[in-house]
Amino acid sequence: MPPPGAARTPAPARRPVLAWALWDWGSAAFNAVVTTFVFSTYLASQLFVDPAIVAAANGNDKDPALVRALADNASLVGVALMIAGIVVALVAPVLGQRSDGTGRRKLWLGINTGVVVLAMAAMVFVEGTPSFLVLGATLIAVGNVFFEFASVNYYAMLTQVSTRENIGRVSGFGWGMGYVGGIVLLLLLLVLFIQSFGNPDAGGLLAVTKDGGWNIRLAVLASALWYAVFAIPVLVRVPEIPAQQRRVRVGFFGSYVVLWGTLRSLWRDSRQVLMFLIASAVFRDGLTGVFTFGAIIAAQVFGFTSTEVLYFAVAANVVAGISTMLSGRLDDRFGPKRVIVVSLIGLIVLGGAVLFIGTSQTAFWITGLGLCAFVGPVQSASRSFLARVAPEGREGEIFGLYATTGRAVSFLAPGLFALFVGLTGDTRLGIVGIVLILGAGLLLLIPVKAKPAVIA
Questions:
Q1: Where does 204-297 show beta strands of DSSP type E?
Q2: CB 326 within 8 A of CB 342
Q3: What is the end-to-end Cα distance of the chain in Å, rounded?
Q4: Who is most buried in 10, 19, 65, 177, counting CB within 10 A?
Q5: pTM over 0.70
Q6: Contact at 8 Å (CB) between 350 and 370?
Q7: In 10 A of CB 440, how many CB atoms?
């Protein structure tokens, strides 16, 4: 908060705030549809298993050869995401810093978002046969890389549409818009492309054939259009950084030198903030793992159909949205760190419970929605924590660093998921890797204190 008597920064206009938040609304097309509930489970389905193995199983979902083949496919998706995470870790740390230096945040947000939209549109060519599995996994990986690049610029723009007095509310509004957008889009896809409505061979009111996964592929194509449309307002309505606030531009490799200087300054003068950035990078990767692989586990272990996965997805977004809004009050009363700690403990306990609930879909609904109730509060309280300690005038740099460090270890959750699945041949045991990441993040967070940052 500003010192007593300090002049208050004028509140930004509402239209830029709404325009900024609409990118979050549109991004549900990638987060909810591609990486979590629709396309990822499509790749994890029997369509991408050798037909001879499927035929030999003769409808027995517990056939060892079929279970192993499905686990191998899930592991391949995990490896693709791990590689994407490594690319992000090598390149993304300089993007937030360079977006300040060049004064072209909107340009790079538009370019990176455009690549994500193109990757999503290309998923329409991923036919439901084993030979297209690698293409599908590659497109998910490419989409993830450029989605994170876009997020670097998007997060950095938060300070352009908010003040220190309302940055938490604006950030929470954007996150809430993401959940609501996910609900609306998933319901539309369910009604138009996926729900059978009595016809087992076609999906949705449009009666799109399910042969070769056409209904899923067209649903993803429609989602790409959704994302493109709702990404436009932020590029039109949000003002760019004023010229006098832009830093001197440096070369690409010089950006790493600047980044290193910032990290050294944080280590010397604001170590608590740096410790939080490291801890949040780890546990946020675990959160990503919960959403990315939760739907795969639901489909392969608990026998959810693509329609049932979408029903769960809608319920998950409702629960996450409500819990996130309620957690804001707890954040103000007890502090963001306590909200994060309690939520991480809840995620670890419920994640571990998935190992012991058999194959009951009812048990998964209860456990899965419980997990979703804790995910949103961790995300919103993490951003609130950083907003409280960020030095005035350096919020963009800190939030850019927050976005980039969040992906610096983004290979951990998919890597450990793929490792446990690959070693055991059991998709369920992939949750062990995710729980370990959440536990590590919790241990790193416990000693952190909320002290304001000082950057030389």
A1: 208-209
A2: no
A3: 20
A4: 177
A5: yes
A6: yes
A7: 17
Read off the pLDDT of residues 371-392 as tens digits, 9 standing for 90 and up.
Answer: 989 988 898 788 778 877 876 5
Question: How far, in Å, CA of 433 to CA of 420, rounded?
Answer: 7
d(CA 66, CA 79): 20
DSSP characters for 291-302? HHHHHHHHHHHS
- The CA-based angle 45-50-52, given to 5 degrees, is 120
Q: What is the C-alpha separation between 347 and 395, in angstroms, rounded? A: 29
Contacts for 126 with CB less than 8 Å, ≥ 6 apart: 42, 43, 132, 135, 136, 139, 213, 217
In three-state secondary structure terms, 409 is coil
428 contacts 354 by C-beta, under 8 angstroms: yes
Q: What are phi and psi of 208, to 5 degrees?
A: -80, 130
Is it the case that residue 47 has pLDDT exceeding 80?
yes
Q: Which residues contact 242 (CB under 8 A, 6 or more apart)?
A: none
Q: How far apart are CA 31 and CA 350, in angstroms?
A: 22
9 dihedral zone (left: phi>0; alpha: psi -120 to 50; beta) = beta
* Count of positions (residues) in the chain: 456
User: 3-class DSSP state for residue 241?
Assistant: coil
Q: What is the pLDDT of residues 387-436, one digit of tens each?
A: 778 765 565 567 767 766 776 677 788 888 889 988 888 888 989 999 99
Short-list 10, 78, 33, CA closest to 416? 78
DSSP string, 388-404: HHSPTT-HHHHHHHHHH
> What is the number of alpha carbons within 13 Å of residue 198 lying toward its C-beta?
1
DSSP state of 2: P
Residue 295 pLDDT exceeds 50: yes
In this structure, are residues 270 and 264 in contact, taking their beta carbons and an 8 Å threshold? no
Angle formed at CA 433 by CA 78 and CA 116, multiple of 5 degrees: 35
Nearest Cα residue to 379 out of 414, 416, 339 = 339
Question: Which domains, from first to last, does the chain contain?
Answer: 14-241+249-445 (1.20.1250.20)
Half-sphere exposure of 29 (CA within 13 A, CB side): 29
Tokens of residue 3, six digits: 């010192």
- What angle separates helix 361-389 from helix 306-334, to the nearest 10 degrees? 40
Q: Within 13 Å and on the Cβ side, how many CA atoms surround 428?
A: 14
